[in-house]
Design a protein that fits this description.
This protein is α/β, with parallel strands linked by helices and 313 residues long. It has helices spanning 4-9, 26-34, 48-61, 77-86, 99-108, 120-128, 152-160, 176-184, 194-197, 206-214, 236-246, 251-258, 262-268, 292-311, and strands spanning 15-17, 39-42, 66-71, 91-95, 112-117, 133-137, 143-144, 167-170, 189-192, 220-223, 230-233.
């Protein structure tokens, strides 16, 4: 299964594990990379010293390529970038910021750069900034999302039409069939988040993993657009947010309601009532918790089966 993405990252399968906050530590990243995909350490929930430790442990646990995801809206950014260079990380995914700021520095240090976008406009800007590939993430995705609400099925061909660099599809992809669909639409690979949350190696709390497995259709919703759009599982905190909207809450009031470390409280510490629980719409199709390597192998097997079935249509 070789193409532009597998060649760019030197991996076996064009399956990239998303760098999700509070889920994507070295155990998950190394397991995905060892299985032939590209594992990603999510720096968004890590202090610089913790990130350094995860990079070092990931190197010890696998001898295959892995990446680090860096949301550029977080503090300590200069220190994090220095750590990536010092630790000789070869692939960096950036998000939530202007790719022009850090792409030249990373590429000067021999690092491949991928930027996450939610629209054609920002995909073109990322290409102009010199990134090696883009992740186009549709409205279905969990966690922080785009304001445009463009679905993956509409976004991928639109981005493909405007860029020439490799394209990775994200949002609503958790199976081999959805992987094939994304690649037929023009993607060179897929980024998978929610499915890997429900894995043994994910560092997210077991109660959160089980809530993902138990989720049904309509159990997530995009909200808090005034701050940063985020797709959440519906729990007491989510209902509190909806009540605040109903009462005409201002941006400052929403910020106060969100508070600090709300995502950590839910996804990492296991407070299923008051925590912020970020997950994609595809949670409704996730029915079990299993090893990351099994997730990769199941996707590949289903992809090949679906490809054969498609040729007979």
């Amino acid at each position: 299964m070789q193409n532009r993405i597998t060649h760019l990252f030197n991996i076996q399968y064009p399956i990239i594990q998303a760098g999700m906050v509070w889920a994507s530590g070295w155990r998950l990243a190394s397991a995905v990379s060892n299985a032939g995909g590209l594992g990603i350490i999510g720096a968004g929930s890590m202090y610089p010293d913790v990130l350094r430790e995860h990079i070092q442990k990931c190197k010890q646990a696998c001898n295959k390529p892995f990446a680090v995801n860096v949301p550029m809206l977080y503090p300590n950014l200069e220190e994090i970038m220095e750590i990536l260079v010092q630790q000789e990380v070869k692939i960096v995914f950036t998000s939530a910021g202007n790719p022009k700021i850090w792409t030249p520095y990373l590429k000067e240090n021999g690092i491949s750069v991928v930027h996450v976008v939610s629209s054609v406009k920002f995909a073109m800007k990322a290409q102009d900034a010199g990134v090696d590939a883009v992740v186009a993430e549709g409205f279905e995705a969990g966690g922080h999302n785009g304001r445009e609400e463009t679905t993956t099925m509409a976004l991928i061909p639109a981005v493909k039409e405007k860029i020439s660099i490799p394209l990775i599809a994200a949002g609503g992809i958790a199976s081999g069939r959805s992987m094939l669909a994304a690649m037929i639409l023009g993607a060179d690979g897929v980024q998978v988040g929610s499915r890997f949350v429900a894995s043994y190696e994910a560092s997210s709390h077991e109660l959160f993993k089980q809530m993902v497995v138990d989720a049904g259709e309509g159990d997530t919703q995009l909200t808090l657009k005034e701050l940063t759009p985020v797709r959440l599982l519906k729990n007491k905190f989510f209902e509190d947010v909806m009540q605040a909207y109903a009462e005409g809450a201002s941006k400052d009031q929403l910020t106060e309601l969100l508070g600090r470390a709300r995502a950590k409280r839910g996804m990492f510490e296991g407070d299923m009532e008051e925590g912020e629980l970020e997950i994609g719409q595809v949670a409704a199709l996730i029915h079990d918790i299993k090893p990351a390597a099994k997730i990769v192998s199941d996707m590949v097997e289903e992809f090949e089966t679906a490809k054969k079935e498609a040729t007979s249509l």
